[in-house]
Amino acid sequence: MSFTLLLTDVISPLGKTLEHELEREPFKILVPGAEVDWADPASLASYLNQHKVDLVLNCRGWEDAFHAGGQTALVQTAQVLASHCAAANIPLIHFSSYSVFGADPKGTHSEKDAVAPLNETGRAFVQTEELIASQLPRHIILRLSWVIGAYGDNLLTRLLSAYLAGASVSVNRRLRGAPTALSDAARVAVALIKQISCGADNWGVMHYCSGDACTQDEFAEQLLQLLIQQQLLTAEPSLSLIDEEPDNEPLSAILGCRRVRDYFGVQARSWRPSLLPLVKQWLHNREQIKAAQ
Predict the structure, then answer these.
(1) For 16, which DSSP code?
(2) 29-58 pLDDT, tens per residue?
(3) pLDDT band at residue 207, thresholds of 50, 70 and 90?
(4) Nearest CA-CA partner of 44 in 70, 2, 6, 74
(5) Where are the alpha helices (DSSP H) in the chain?
(6) Other Cβ atoms within 10 Å of 35 Cβ, number
(7) Of 105, 113, 192, 185, nearest to 144 (Cα)?
(8) Burial zone of 102 (CB within 10 Å; 0-12 exposed, 13-18 middle, 19+ buried)
(9) Alpha carbon 137 to chain centroid, angstroms
(10) Phi and psi (nearest 5°) for 5?
(11) What is the residue-wise DSSP string for 87-148?
């Protein structure tokens, strides 16, 4: 029996990684193009009805939401999907973020903790979660910690760009997270989809992050040491530490992952073994861009 999955985005780094991971699986993958106008609910309804979708995997607008003014696609897509998935009884997996939490000093956030967003990104993610939860019983909201990868704008790529330019880098020793590779997040999503396709009936808010927490400055130092060991630095960067609590960012991005473990048997992985391959991939991407210019 075939299982048809709609993936809402393959342009962003997260979307590309999800598509790559899903290509190895026996699912039928649909990626709407110009035939779906995300601002027109009727357009999506027509697409869903035409293709008999079994599950929707939504990451559209996820990365843009972390940039000023980039939250529109995230909220708009969730609003349209929640309504029409509910009408068609189609389950939805939606990516969310640790940024829904506030400034409380709690070291690890569980799925039951109250949300209290401190910035526009967090407020947009809370809004999308509420839109989905209020309309769609069969949903998984999958919150992620710091996501790192060789593509896009994330903590790893920002540090690499600064280090290799010999620039000054500021990191906050008060901020804690569990860096999670894009490929690891995609691995978890595929694990959930496989079990849902086989009849798993576990829904609600769930967390995933790597099993290896650190402070922002510890991650930056680990990366710097790796670059030194690999003799990849052509200039000496300057690393300065900020030792004060930010007023617009949760102090902790560490997430308790009990539900994905208990409901789906998902085990957390460390980010450290993936660091060197990610650095090499980033360097390869940079050389390709230079060659194309």
Answers:
(1) H
(2) 999 888 888 878 888 888 888 888 999 999
(3) very high
(4) 6
(5) 13-22, 41-51, 72-88, 120-135, 155-164, 182-197, 216-229, 258-264, 272-292
(6) 9
(7) 185
(8) middle
(9) 22
(10) -120, 130
(11) HHT--EEEEEEGGGS-S---SSB-TTSPP---SHHHHHHHHHHHHHHHH-SSEEEEEESSEE
Distance separating alpha carbons of residues 280 and 278, to the nearest angstrom: 5
**pTM of the predicted model, to two decimals?**
0.95
Name the residue with tokens 């919150």.
143
Nearest to 253 by CA among 103, 124, 123: 103
Q: d(Cα 146, Cα 265) in Å, to the nearest integer? A: 22
Positive or negative: CA dihedral 42, 46, 49, 55: negative
Q: Are 139 and 94 in contact (CB under 8 A)?
A: yes
The pLDDT assigned to 93 comes to 98
The separation between CA 196 and the C-alpha centre of its own chain, rounded to angstroms, equals 20
Number of Cβ within a 10 Å radius of residue 199: 6
